Amino acid sequence: MRQKILNESMKHVASHGFTVRAIQRAVTEMGYSAALATLVPRGAGSLVEHFVDECDSRLSLRIATTGEDDLKDLTPEEKMVKVIGWRLDMLKEHAEHWGAALAVMGLPENLPTTLRQRAMLADELVGATGPTMTGLDSSKGGNITAAAKAAGFYGDRAAAGALYAACELFLVTDTSPGFADTDDFVRQRTREMFDLASGVEQVGGF
């Protein structure tokens, strides 16, 4: 029942945002008392969690089913731009409400779920792009120590997560037609990140 309520609630996000009101509207339209909204214990937090999980699942499926063809001829930087673009596209229909949703995600009762989701998304981004963002490529052999490999593993995911978060925040304030400024921002910030990684790798080579 909880899943059905959340699915139905998404139909009301356009009008009410990621709020308890959207959940209550869903419950009443399903023919139940609004009190049944208590089946969604964290209210807006659960609704945002549901949407993010759905988006992340769609991204994973897209990478698994079409990623090989869509990404195979791209550089790691271009792959990152592409995959972040896919994920941001899922937010655009709810962009006017996403700033409030981000605030909900940061509440103490929702933070553990938010951190888990962000870690999984960062892992997905790195998996699609390749471990080359920090200049500490853990996939390379040679004289790289275990500590350096670990630093590369976690550093790549931290960099990918920070990059995505910056792009997401930019999107919620973007009023340009078709979110064109967001697309430019993604390309620019990704270029800066990979340029920095290249510099780290070159320094490490001395």
TrEMBL record:
<keyword id="KW-0496">Mitochondrion</keyword>
<dbReference type="InterPro" id="IPR012762">
    <property type="entry name" value="Ubiq_biosynth_COQ9"/>
</dbReference>
<comment type="pathway">
    <text>Cofactor biosynthesis; ubiquinone biosynthesis.</text>
</comment>
<keyword id="KW-0446">Lipid-binding</keyword>
<keyword id="KW-0809">Transit peptide</keyword>
<comment type="similarity">
    <text>Belongs to the COQ9 family.</text>
</comment>
<dbReference type="GO" id="GO:0006744">
    <property type="term" value="P:ubiquinone biosynthetic process"/>
</dbReference>
<comment type="function">
    <text>Membrane-associated protein that warps the membrane surface to access and bind aromatic isoprenes with high specificity, including ubiquinone (CoQ) isoprene intermediates and presents them directly to Coq7, therefore facilitating the Coq7-mediated hydroxylase step. Participates in the biosynthesis of coenzyme Q, also named ubiquinone, an essential lipid-soluble electron transporter for aerobic cellular respiration.</text>
</comment>
<keyword id="KW-0831">Ubiquinone biosynthesis</keyword>
<feature type="domain" description="COQ9 C-terminal">
    <location>
        <begin position="151"/>
        <end position="195"/>
    </location>
</feature>
<protein>
    <recommendedName>
        <fullName>Ubiquinone biosynthesis protein</fullName>
    </recommendedName>
</protein>
<dbReference type="GO" id="GO:0005743">
    <property type="term" value="C:mitochondrial inner membrane"/>
</dbReference>
<dbReference type="InterPro" id="IPR013718">
    <property type="entry name" value="COQ9_C"/>
</dbReference>
<dbReference type="Pfam" id="PF08511">
    <property type="entry name" value="COQ9"/>
</dbReference>
<dbReference type="GO" id="GO:0008289">
    <property type="term" value="F:lipid binding"/>
</dbReference>
